[in-house]
Every structure is written in C-alpha cells, then in structure tokens.
Amino acid sequence: MKYKIAVIKGDGIGPEIVDEAIKVLKKMGEKYNHNFEFTEVLAGGIAIDKTGKNLPEETLQVCKESDAVILGAVGGPKWDSLPGNERPEKALLALRKELNLYSNIRPAVMFDILKDTCPLKPEIVEGGMDIVIVRELTGGIYFGKKFTEGNYACDCMEYSKYEIERIAHQAFKIAQSRNKHVTSVDKANVLETSRLWRKTVEEVAKDYPDVKLNHLYVDNAAMQLVVNPKQFDVIVTENMFGDILSDEASMITGSIGLLPSASLGDNNFGMYEPIHGSAPDIAGQGKANPIATILSISMMLKYTFGLQSESDCIENAVKKTLSDGHRTADIARKGEKIITTVEMGNIIVESI
Amino acid sequence: MKYKIAVIKGDGIGPEIVDEAIKVLKKMGEKYNHNFEFTEVLAGGIAIDKTGKNLPEETLQVCKESDAVILGAVGGPKWDSLPGNERPEKALLALRKELNLYSNIRPAVMFDILKDTCPLKPEIVEGGMDIVIVRELTGGIYFGKKFTEGNYACDCMEYSKYEIERIAHQAFKIAQSRNKHVTSVDKANVLETSRLWRKTVEEVAKDYPDVKLNHLYVDNAAMQLVVNPKQFDVIVTENMFGDILSDEASMITGSIGLLPSASLGDNNFGMYEPIHGSAPDIAGQGKANPIATILSISMMLKYTFGLQSESDCIENAVKKTLSDGHRTADIARKGEKIITTVEMGNIIVESI
Ligand SMILES: CC(C)[C@H](C(=O)O)[C@@H](O)C(=O)O
Ligand SMILES: CC(C)[C@H](C(=O)O)[C@@H](O)C(=O)O
C-alpha cells in the first residue's frame, strides 16, 4: 500500500525538525515494508517570501490529494507586521478550515524523565499526568463572522449542533480507549454557544454509557489544571477555550518540547504537528528537539493509517533514546551532554 | 462625611463573610470618626427565593444611590437549573452593566504565610508573586449580541475603542503606582477585537512614557503564568480572557481564600467582593474565611473613598492576625488550631 504524505516544513526550526521526522518515517517504511510518498509544499512565512502568498493554491491541492499532512511550524517576527489575512498563522487557520480538520487532539503527558522541569510541586503531579485535550478546531470565534468598522470591532463565536456532536463523539471514543472520563469545558453561565454545547454533549453522552461525563466552566478548568491536573482524563472544549487550556496544560507537564498533536477530519485524514512553535531564535542552529515532531509521526501512523504497532515502535524508540540519556539542549540538565537535532534523529532511527 | 454603602450578602457563605466585613468597617468608623451608612438589599439566589427576581429593581436603585457596594457571593446548586437569564450569576452581570463597573481589579498576591499552599515549585515563586489583573468588565462577549436559533447559537465579542481606552488608562495608572510594567493580553493573530485592542492600548501607552508595555497572546499568557509569574506587574485584558487568566493567577498564588477584588466605574464608584465564590458546601457552618471580604473593604476605602491610611490600617490588622497564627479551616495546616468565621472577624477588629 502507498501512503501519500504532504510535507510542510514551514518557518523557523520547522525544516530541521521535519527532516528528522521524515528520516524516521523512511526507516519505518524500510522496516515494515510500507511505501511512504512525500510531497513537499510551502506554507507560512517561507511561502510569503517565495510566492507572495501564505498558502499557495498548490499547497492546498497537494494536501487534499494526500492521506495526511506533516507540518513543522509557521510564523516568525519577520512577518509579524503584516495585516491579519496575510500573516503566516492565517495559513494554518486556512489549512484547518479547508481540510475540515475539526478535531484537534493534544496529549498533555508528563514524561517521566522531565519530571524535574514540571513547574508544579511534585506532590501535585505524583504518579504522572496524562490528559488528552480534544479541541474543536474549525468553528467558534476563530471562524465566525468578524469585522472592524472605524472604532468598533466584532468577532462572532458561532456553533451549530452538528459541529459539537462530531467533536463530542471523538472525545467519548478516545475516552473509551483510556480512563473513560470526559470533562466538557464551557462557559454556560454566560454564553449561548456554551449552553448549546453543554446540551449537545449531554445528548451525545447517552451513546457512551460506560464513560463518565462532567462539566466545568472554563475559568474553573484553568484553575483545576494547576491545582489538580490528575482529575482529568479527556477534556473536550470549543476552539478558543481549547487554545488556552491546551497550552496551559502542555506547559504544566514541563514536557512541551516533546508533545505532538493531531488535527483530524473525516475518514481519518489528518495533519500532524508538534505543539511547540517555530522558535525563530534557535532556527538553523541544530539546537531544536525533533521529538515532538517524531511523536506526531507516531500519531499519524496510528490515527490516519491505523498502523498501531508501527506507531508503538516509534514511541518505544523515543522512550529508549530518552532513557539512554540522550538530550537536546531544551531537555538537558546542567552538565549533561547536549546533542544536535540531527544526532537526536539519527539515534532514534537507529533504535527502531 | 457620610459614606453610603449598599450591602448585598447574597448566597452560600455570603452572609457570614459580609457580616464580619461590616463589623470591621463599623470599627473603622469609630476609630477614624467616619459615618458609614449601610443599606442591605437582595440579589442572587436569595432574591429569587424571596422576590422571584435575581435582581429586584429596588436593589439596583439602592446601589445607584450609594457610594459603594459590598457583595458577598451569589449562586449555588439550588438555582443551577434555571434558564440563563433567571440565574443568580445573571444578577452579577446585570449589576456590572447597570452600574457601569467597567474595570475589574484583581490582585493576585502570594501571601507569605500561605507560601506552602502555592501549587508551583518554590523556585518559581521565590521572593513572592504580586500581580494586578485589570479586567474589562462590561464589554466583550459577555454583553455582545447573542442568540440561539434551533441548532445554531451565536455570541458576539464586541468592543468599541472608548471601552478599550478607559480600561487601558486604568491599567497604566495602576502600573505607575507599582512596578511600571503593563502586559496587555489579546489574541490579535485571530480576532478583530484584539487587533483594535492592541492598537488602542498602544495609543494610550503614549500618555505613560514611564510605563513599559508588552503584548502577549492569551494562550501564551496562560502558559507564562505557570512557568514565570514573576515577569508580570499589571496585566490588562478583555472580559473573558480576564475571567480565565485572573482565576488561573489567583489559584497559582495559593491564596485564593484571601484575595479581594474591586469593580470600578466612573467617579470612583465601586463594587467590592472576594474573588472566591459562594461555597455552598460550607455555608452556615462558621467555616468560611472572611479575610478576602475584609480586604475588599480595604480596597473600598482606598479606591472609592480615598482613605489610604484607613485602608492600610485594615491591611495591617489582617497581616498581624495572620502572623499571630490565627487560622480558619481553609488556611490551617495540619495540627493548627482552627477558629470560626466570627472569631476571625473579632480578632481582626481587635487588632484595629
Ligand atoms: C497560531 C495560532 C493561530 C494558533 C491558534 O490559536 O489556534 C496556535 O496558537 C495553536 O494553538 O495552534
Ligand atoms: C459568575 C460568572 C458570571 C463570573 C464571570 O464569568 O465574570 C465569575 O466567574 C467572575 O469571574 O466574577
């Protein structure tokens, strides 16, 4: 079988980390006899520089004709003064919308070897932290009507029931394969969209009697993540709340440099990218950690291609590499030997 | 001079904690020869039970004719199934809007005696944490157009320039009396309202050349509060971001039971309330900590009445009481003697 993958390296450290991820995937192809076919396309700042557009038509076309997309990161100070629609981030939003990637899955896991970098006290995260945040990604205030008129501006948070249903199903299904607990986060004491959200999630919950459901207001969720993150299994929430809470959660793990993400549409189509950004300050220096991107590849094998043991194989290779003590600069403690992006990639490839 | 104060005890622990705050205020009146006049009015769940309305017309009238309002807390499970407009929280929102309380000031301070309850590692909060969050309180998605139509719902985040200007001025003025640093939080890479916000804050900043200004996206701010809260002095942000970030920040201090807040309008009019909620689970048991409400009184003396030394006097009495080791249940460590709400009030009154 042939797997068609669109590759968007993007800006900053994007190219370096994606190169390592592709090396890993090629190795997987050899080992398991899969045919991964890569097509590189442009998006973000580099696309602006080379074509004048943050998301060239060809990029969208190639992504649509692929089975999955790998994305490094987009954006950087160079393009920060451009107007809203022309910025690199806009390409990311357009990709999500055009590819109908409505379901963003962000594991917030504390890696044991990074326990020390967790900002919370040890007693709070004792025994580890393992949350999956399921964020609605193509609705809400990101894509609702918006305009500025003189001294007035407006952004509409809009939701239709079917948008809430499909993301809720996703969350409950994921919970079924885990600890069977979904926490739905909204602001139902203030927002109409949240009241529709809560009602719809409760309806969907009836299809999953084995999964426990509770609701939290978003302000309370932001607090609970700090004082008692272990209460969570799967968190499902709308686009902007998901943006805020998933970043807070990933930071709380202390492992943000290692965290992957998947953005899924229908029929298992998906875009895979690290949680961290383009880190322009260290771009091109071989300092970036490719692990979050490599683990994104592992998510791709599982979610889009259904290759569970291949996915596990990458995860195990990463775990082994880490427990053997190999460290890029971001995760090294004082005195530990630091290796480069490429060296990290090579070592992971070797342990596959 | 006579100071007219409307008193809304509200629900849950509201009545108990407000009673102690009033005791403190009466003592202040005696000591400094001020005439504080109190008028008790209903709002929230208790108002629903007694009058059928969460915010009776009389309450609004009395508040408007007063110089300041003291509020305990509103809400509880008893009224949670009521429709949006009839809920206790709606009374709070209506009070904010009707009294034009556009500027919500929430100190997030780590109390030295509560250092141990801070969820962050000691090295992150070493030397203390002292942030003021200035939240816009009468605009944005809380009060924009909203509706549900069948399977579709919509909430509009709306801002006009003058709304941003007045809250920005407030933030810069507060920063001038502190460490001269304002962090403005928005989501300007996605929202039109945020772009208007950022532009306006930058314009207002020109009037305060002695204050440093920086901008953060809300998702990044949620992360920075966890990993490096000491970078902040004054944070200014729109209504919903302020809701989320101020709760996160207050939880991070570990001192949420002690934190007061002020909601200010024009001409120093203000409503004062503790950050914590109505805590229905411990209501009527004498377990509640009145300190956050008593410190809210201290904010009232400062912000509305301009009585700086009276305000300091309350703050010092609270500090002395705490350093003498008096503890309500919420702040007691294992083995420490626990006193009641009323006892805590009495001790603070005595040390005034
Ligand atoms: C870059 C930005 C538009 C984006 C978002 O807000 O969704 C990012 O923060 C993310 O979470 O992927
Ligand atoms: C009760 C609720 C409507 C309110 C808000 O969201 O503003 C509360 O969370 C607060 O922060 O005062």
UniProtKB/TrEMBL annotation, chains A, B:
Binding site for Mg(2+): D219, D243, D247
Gene Ontology terms, MF aspect: 3-isopropylmalate dehydrogenase activity
Alphabetical list of SMART domains matching this protein: Iso_dh
EC number per UniProt: 1.1.1.85
Primary enzyme class: oxidoreductase
Family note: Belongs to the isocitrate and isopropylmalate dehydrogenases family. LeuB type 1 subfamily.
Record's protein name: 3-isopropylmalate dehydrogenase
Gene from which the chain derives: leuB
